[in-house]
Design goal:
Radius of gyration: 19 Å
Number of helices: 6
Number of strands: 2
Helix content: 55-70%
Distance between the termini: 28 Å
Structural class: mainly alpha
Length: 152
């Protein structure tokens, strides 16, 4: 197998990430942004709508509409801030947690099914690649982009 240059590895990693995200999006009506928002609420707890919009990279009016849809589906609710009763926070509901858990189970089952089609050597190679890629991606998520880094 030919050794890949760093630029080729970066392109391949970006392509794989984008393809995985697109293929794992629930085709039954939950957008990536919806799932991401619910996941963030589950991980981080109740948050102000403005902070949620900023964290998800969407405009506040769009997040307001999304939260209203989540509320109407019983997946999210608004709660009072325990530190400041004048402030309203958005929180995931138990139903929202159940929906996220089911989506994760379905995603994992699909991936396990696909991985079963690989040879033992291919699975070993992919496992070794993941041992390198996962810490790199985690570092990328936690380290801010530096001036001079190329953005695509």
């Amino acid at each position: 197998m030919e050794r890949m240059e760093p630029e080729e590895i970066a392109q391949a990693l970006a392509e794989v990430a984008g393809s995985v995200i697109r293929s794992l999006v629930d085709r039954r009506g939950m957008s990536f942004t919806t799932a991401s928002t619910l996941g963030r609420l589950e991980r981080e707890g109740p948050v102000r709508l403005t902070a949620l919009a900023a964290a998800e990279g969407v405009a506040q009016p769009s997040m307001t509409q999304l939260v209203q849809r989540l509320e109407s589906q019983g997946l999210a609710t608004r709660v009072s801030d325990p530190d400041d009763g004048r402030v309203t926070l958005v929180a995931v509901t138990d139903l929202g947690r159940q929906v996220l858990a089911e989506r994760r189970r379905e995603r994992e089952a699909r991936l396990v099914s696909l991985l079963a089609t690989l040879s033992e050597d291919e699975r070993a190679a992919l496992g070794a690649a993941m041992e390198t890629a996962v810490p790199l991606v985690r570092r990328m998520l936690h380290e801010p982009a530096r001036p001079g880094d190329l953005q695509r």
